[in-house]
Amino acid sequence: MKPPSTDEEPVIDSLNPSASPTDSAGADAAIFQKKLASKNDEYLRLAADFDNFKKRTRRDSEQKAAAEKESFILDLLPVVDNLERALACKPSPSSQPLRQGVEMTLEQLNRLLQSNGIGNVEAVGRPFDPHRHEAVSMRHDPAQPDHVVLEVTQRGYCHGEKLFRPARVIVNDPGHSPGAGRAR
Fold this sequence. Notes:
This protein has helices at about 20-90, 95-115, and strands at about 120, 135-140, 150-155, 155-160, 160-165, 165-170. With about 180 residues, it is α+β, with helices and mostly antiparallel strands. It folds into two domains: about 30-115, Hemagglutinin Ectodomain, Chain B, CATH 3.90.20.20; about 120-180, Nucleotide Exchange Factor Grpe, Chain A, domain 2. The strands form two sheets. It has a three-stranded antiparallel sheet. A hairpin with a 2-residue loop joins strand 4 (about 155-160) and strand 5. The model is unreliable at about 180-184 (pLDDT under 50).
């Protein structure tokens, strides 16, 4: 009769019969250490990939929100322009309450733009800058320096240094005289 077997029987290496169970346990520990190191490395790589994914997703989301905000502001600017045009008309006594309503609406829209960091492009009295101004006309004013903005026909808007819309301007041109054709 065979003695009952236990779970702690020595493991004999079939390739190396002279190997002791202690050598085999050491080899198993080394294999497990390598596997553990490999799994740990895999875990760290996955954690780094996931962290990069979160950062990329957050950045993409912020960029999309900024683009949508910019699009909304660009759609809002013609409304501001139309309210300014309405105020530029000569008022009649009967239109005074309507004019006050338009002024209040325009003020509210301008505060909304300012609270979102949108400012006006300064133009009148400044040198013409093709990066910030769009010349729509020229005229000569001898009291003003050459190539300076005389009048703004449509305001420009910017967010910091980023230009949303250039200001449409009339520029002082020393060679431009009223009624005279320009020789080229």
